[in-house]
Protein 1
Amino acid sequence: EAQVTQNPRYLITVTGKKLTVTCSQNMNHEYMSWYRQDPGLGLRQIYYSMNVEVTDKGDVPEGYKVSRKEKRNFPLILESPSPNQTSLYFCASSFEGVWDEQFFGPGTRLTVL
Amino acid sequence: RKEVEQDPGPFNVPEGATVAFNCTYSNSASQSFFWYRQDCRKEPKLLMSVYSSGNEDGRFTAQLNRASQYISLLIRDSKLSDSATYLCVVNKGGGSEKLVFGKGTKLTVNP
């Protein structure tokens, strides 16, 4: 089944404890991206990647890192999480970047205490 | 002006009603336009791409007005299952590979 998977789906952590949210797609998509969704603010792009080893900042990259060592994986790293990073995170992928349908993962609900 | 702006609603309509959503975008260089649907705190899913000539998919019709920089979504004969939040999505344009999502318009279809 063609899909985007994210892990973990739910995470409660404490300020400053490094964490990684994994994202993997099995559709051989070139483009992958991370979003956060907050009430009243909608979905905002954190980082995106056009291809392996090519990443770029979205609108809200502060406090996040990403890597794209393999085509299928695009992990989101929070080196020192803070409470303002409490949010619902979505990973997405597409074949032709912004010209194409974005396939979203099921989301990761992160709470930073 | 915000990059992408939608009426947040909520829209409450009876079954069978016709409802229309509008979305305005600020960058005239934007070239790709979409409507996504999101059920409560689930992942967004593509409803329709929006083409310059307009396009229709069953009960759903999408239109693009480049001169006024807005896109619209028309839902005819609303069903209970259409209840969701509808997201307008636009690329930033100018060669950017970034997407901008509107905050969404919430629709509730009542029996």
Protein 2
Amino acid sequence: QVQLVESGGGLLKPGGSLRLSCAASGFTFSDYYMSWIRQAPGKGLEWVSYISGSGTTTYYADSVKGRFTISRDNAKNSLYLQMDSLRAEDTAVYYCARVIHRGSGYSDYWGQGTLATVSS
Amino acid sequence: EIVMTQSPATLSVSPGERATLSCRASQSVGSDLTWYQQKPGQAPRLLIYGASIRATGIPARFSGSGSGTDFTLTISSLQSEDFAVYYCQQYNSWPPTFGLGTNLDIK
């Protein structure tokens, strides 16, 4: 069965950096776009970034463009999100999700999420 | 970007009754709309895609309808496990955008 397991969350100060990871199993990882979607505490969902199966195409929300970098290692069935210049408003649970690439995409499987807290 | 507006923000319904949740897009998204269910402390779960197609394993009491700008999620006979927050999301254009959710709670 499809499984996505995130790791790497933690408590950071503003301006700091964090790298999130997502380990995928149960499907042919390289066949799918993958995404990071976040949810601030008590708030709704926000699409952060996604990446094509080959890793050559990436998209970012305007709110993170230039600060976050999505990448993947298909040999390791892993997805990453490098988060730099962190701000308090980046505090959220970050979900790794498999993307069905129709139009701009939707997610059919999600991990359980990892919490990143940015606070001084 | 396309703004998704869900109503009502909170819906109180008794078990066994029908629940109707609405989602409106600020411009046409065709049928490129999904519904997700999220329970406290859990990740969202895909219920409906293509506005009306149930995802794998989703019970038949969940149905989606609509196209263009107006969409509806109907739960025909609420079970205790259905009380949760429901989000719609459009995937017609970049960026994909979510509504703020409808909290379906027990009356």
Protein 3
Amino acid sequence: DTGVSQDPRHKITKRGQNVTFRCDPISEHNRLYWYRQTLGQGPEFLTYFQNEAQLEKSRLLSDRFSAERPKGSFSTLEIQRTEQGDSAMYLCASSPLRGGIGELFFGEGSRLTVL
Amino acid sequence: KQEVTQIPAALSVPEGENLVLNCSFTDSAIYNLQWFRQDPGKGLTSLLLIQSSQREQTSGRLNASLDKSSGRSTLYIAASQPGDSATYLCAVTRNTGGFKTIFGAGTRLFVKA
């Protein structure tokens, strides 16, 4: 098992463009989380899935953000009509639900720069 | 609403010193508490996880304690080394209505050789 994988690692885009990030969780982890992190801050919760069901979405997430996990495996996070304020590190984490441990395992993140 | 606070925000110590990082949370109805390490520009690495029924966990030079009733956790690092320089993040997972995990802003640690 190679851990949580995120792609792309870096993305530079112009304001107004759409971007999509992909996250491949650790296999058999049924929970998947997306977080956003800006410089000097802790990760900020965006949304999470249990299998293919999106169980919660942060109120901080505008309608320009959408996340999917169509088959309960990989997930995508799409940002439409990007704004400079969307520049951040987007982190994905997965978690097993075995024995109620619930430990989070993070990927290396996808860094977005909006010009 | 759960809020997680970490003190101090930054810390600089000489190599070899023992140190304590603090984490406080406002809602004691937690499922677990996790400590992470983050190097600049990288993802988060899990250090220790404490379940709500536990009081502490140890891994090598690291020891984390949990006092759920007072809403506090500490991360103790023994005999600090320059390689310990990183940001340390505390995160709590609630035990109601799903398993949402909330992070503190972190403590930036610099260990001087």
